[in-house]
């Protein structure tokens, strides 16, 4: 009998940000394949005796190959088990969800997607700022700062990213932000455009620091946090870190 896969969003790290549905799926799962950022207290919601399998990927560290992760999902579900694929943040946001869905579809395995709090929303809340502003930031854009090689993607729309009336959130962008900032400034975005570096959002290690895009680029050339981090820039509201 074929099992079932629930793609469960774990949020940015604080277990209190899990949805009720996410908690229920964890409690019912026989197998949980989890990302590094979804470990710790969040796994405390898993059923006693569930098989917990770490499949997280972190930049610069040995990580399971995506094909291997997808095959694990197929194998466990094909054995008739209830499987949770626990992904950090919202699982549809830069989490390689599509590859895993395609593997399940090819194997004829049913699945569902449980949405969650993406780290951008959690970081803005922690900083006490809105993602949009009525007169100065009517648009929000989420981008990835790294392609599969770890470099800034070549296909980014620089005109859109340099829009001074948009709030831009860069995921996985610490190592490439100096390059991005140089391109933004060349495109006409002022060097003193406000920026926010949000590290380890919603965890005890959380750190929020305010910069300009120029000063943040300089900072990240010499100091990259080992913690997961987001970068915001644009017409950001004032806040108290």
Short description:
With 241 residues, the chain is of the alpha/beta class. Helix content is 27%, strand content 22%.
Low-confidence region ranges: none
> Rounded to an integer, what's the Rg over CA atoms?
19 Å
Q: How many discrete domains?
A: 2
Series of secondary-structure elements, N-terminal to C-terminal = EHEEHEHEHEHEHEEHE
Q: Give the CATH topology of the largest domain.
A: Methyltransferase, Cobalt-precorrin-4 Transmethylase, Domain 2
Total count of strands = 10
Give the helix tally.
7
Shape annotation: elongated
Looking at CATH, the homologous superfamily of the largest domain is: Tetrapyrrole methylase, C-terminal domain
Helix content: 25-40%
CATH class of the largest domain: Alpha Beta
The assigned CATH architecture of the largest domain is 2-Layer Sandwich
Overall average residue pLDDT: 92
Provide the structure class: alpha/beta
Biggest sheet, open or closed, and with what strands and sense? 5 strands, parallel
Percent strand equals: 15-25%
| Straight-line distance between termini | 52 Å
In the sheet with the most strands, the strands line up as: 3-2-4-1-5
């Amino acid at each position: 009998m074929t099992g079932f896969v629930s793609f469960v969003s774990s949020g940015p790290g604080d277990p209190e940000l899990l949805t009720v549905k996410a908690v229920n799926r964890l409690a019912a799962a026989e197998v949980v394949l989890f990302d590094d950022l979804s470990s710790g207290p969040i796994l405390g919601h898993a059923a006693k005796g569930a098989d917990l399998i770490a499949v997280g990927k972190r930049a610069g560290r040995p990580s399971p190959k995506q094909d291997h992760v997808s095959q694990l999902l197929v194998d466990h579900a094909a054995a008739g088990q209830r499987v949770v694929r626990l992904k950090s943040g919202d699982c549809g946001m830069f989490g390689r969800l599509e590859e895993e869905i395609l593997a399940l579809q090819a194997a004829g395995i049913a699945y569902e997607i449980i949405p969650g709090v993406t780290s951008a929303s959690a970081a803005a809340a922690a900083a006490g700022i809105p993602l949009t502003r009525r007169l100065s930031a009517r648009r929000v854009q989420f981008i990835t700062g790294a392609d599969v090689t770890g470099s800034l993607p070549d296909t980014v729309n620089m005109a859109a990213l340099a829009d001074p009336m948009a709030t831009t959130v860069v995921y996985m962008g610490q190592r490439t932000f100096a390059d991005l900032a140089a391109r933004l400034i060349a495109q006409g975005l002022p060097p003193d455009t406000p920026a926010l570096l949000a590290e380890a959002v919603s965890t005890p290690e959380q750190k929020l620091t305010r910069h300009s895009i120029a000063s943040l680029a300089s900072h990240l050339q010499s100091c990259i946090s080992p913690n997961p981090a987001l970068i915001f820039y644009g017409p950001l509201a004032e806040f108290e870190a």
